[in-house]
Each structure stands twice: as C-alpha cells, then as structure tokens.
Amino acid sequence: MSQKPTRAVILLPGAVNFEAVMASFGDWFQDAMVIAVDKGIDKAEALVTLSKTREVAVDFWVGDFDSSRRLEISPTLYREKVSYPVEKDEIDTELAFSLARREGVDQFLLLGGIGGRLDHQAALLFLPAQYPEARVIHTDGVETLYFLEAGKEYHFTPPVGATVSLIALSDLCGINLSGVKWPLVQHDLEIGSGLTYSNEVITERGITVSMKAGRAWLYLLPADSKRSL
C-alpha cells in the first residue's frame, strides 16, 4: 500500500458469501488494510481470486491460532503473522482492532463471525462500543449490520421487503426511522426492548434512520433469505 490506509477489512472465522460482499463492498479491497483473525485466514485465497487487485491477500494474520492450527496456509497469502498467547485479556478481534487503530484506521468492515459461538457473537456485537469514533460494518454477505452514531442521519437503500431491525446497545433517545412498515418519530427505547426488531422496508426510496443519543446497530436481511430463528 502506497499510503496509510484509513479502512480495514477484518476476516473472521465463519462462512462468507464473497460474491455478495464484493457486489456491495468491492471498493474496500482496493485500498483497505486486510487483517485475518485466527481461522479467518481460510478466506485469504478466495479474497485474492475475487479482488484481482491485491498482490497479497492479508497484511496481518493476528491471533493465538488455536482454531487454525490444522490449516495449511501458504506464506505467500499474508505479509506478517502476529502471535499472541492463548491466555490473554482480549479476544482476537479486539487485538485486530487495536492493531488497525494504531495504524490510523477508523473504518472497519468485518467479514464472517456470524452464527458462531454465542459468547463470541455477543462480544462482536458490543465491540464498536469500545471504538465510538470508528465506523463499523459487519456482514457475511447475507446479514449486514451498520453501527450507528448518535447525532447523524443515515440513508440505506435495501430492496423492498427486506427485514430491518434496530439493535440497541444502550438506551436510545430520539429515534427517527422512516421508509419502513412501522416508522418511528422521536421515539425513546430502553435497551433490551424488542420493539425495533423485524421491521420491513416498504419503499424503493430506501430508509432513513437517526437518533439523538445512544449506540445501536442497524440490521438488514434480504427478503429472499431463508434465515430465521
């Protein structure tokens, strides 16, 4: 990379629909730092094939490598391997975030990590709360989450019929949500409430969402997805 990147792609363990990811986020792979987290290195070869612009798939391979010990990974797929002990205070994804932040990164695209162990899933959901100044997107190519900052207005254009959920990570104040079956106007929400789950996009113009205070994910799931509880 000729200049310091401001974006990082984090490859996590778990399945990823790379064709869908490239269709929505393909521009990230032109200039972003790429960090593989432990077994997430298994996506490196697919990344090189699909991106077509990267000479080396992964800039940093980070973790304690407990889940990747049986993988055979060519050293040509990564630039640097950063090892940590199994017994540590942080999860591997936190280590990847910290490394990227030290390099000046403030935008993150997390690939994978959906549908795995519940404790790790919870850790990933709350991870952006540690980095409120960072923009974070988390997707596996089917389910996509966008971390929302208070005081900003966001516009998304998912297809009509897509599922929309607002996942509160704290109490939320002054939520505005339009373009959905059940809109909200200046609504306050306590953390843990299910009121903002399983809404539905009703217009091709897309949806608009904002809130005055709090932290939350906006969750999107295509209407044709087979995923359910």
Automatic annotation (TrEMBL):
<keyword id="KW-0547">Nucleotide-binding</keyword>
<dbReference type="Pfam" id="PF04265">
    <property type="entry name" value="TPK_B1_binding"/>
</dbReference>
<keyword id="KW-0067">ATP-binding</keyword>
<dbReference type="InterPro" id="IPR036371">
    <property type="entry name" value="TPK_B1-bd_sf"/>
</dbReference>
<keyword id="KW-0418">Kinase</keyword>
<dbReference type="InterPro" id="IPR007373">
    <property type="entry name" value="Thiamin_PyroPKinase_B1-bd"/>
</dbReference>
<dbReference type="InterPro" id="IPR036759">
    <property type="entry name" value="TPK_catalytic_sf"/>
</dbReference>
<feature type="domain" description="Thiamin pyrophosphokinase thiamin-binding">
    <location>
        <begin position="151"/>
        <end position="217"/>
    </location>
</feature>
<dbReference type="Pfam" id="PF04263">
    <property type="entry name" value="TPK_catalytic"/>
</dbReference>
<dbReference type="InterPro" id="IPR006282">
    <property type="entry name" value="Thi_PPkinase"/>
</dbReference>
<dbReference type="InterPro" id="IPR007371">
    <property type="entry name" value="TPK_catalytic"/>
</dbReference>
<keyword id="KW-0808">Transferase</keyword>
<dbReference type="InterPro" id="IPR053149">
    <property type="entry name" value="TPK"/>
</dbReference>
<protein>
    <recommendedName>
        <fullName>Thiamine diphosphokinase</fullName>
        <ecNumber>2.7.6.2</ecNumber>
    </recommendedName>
</protein>
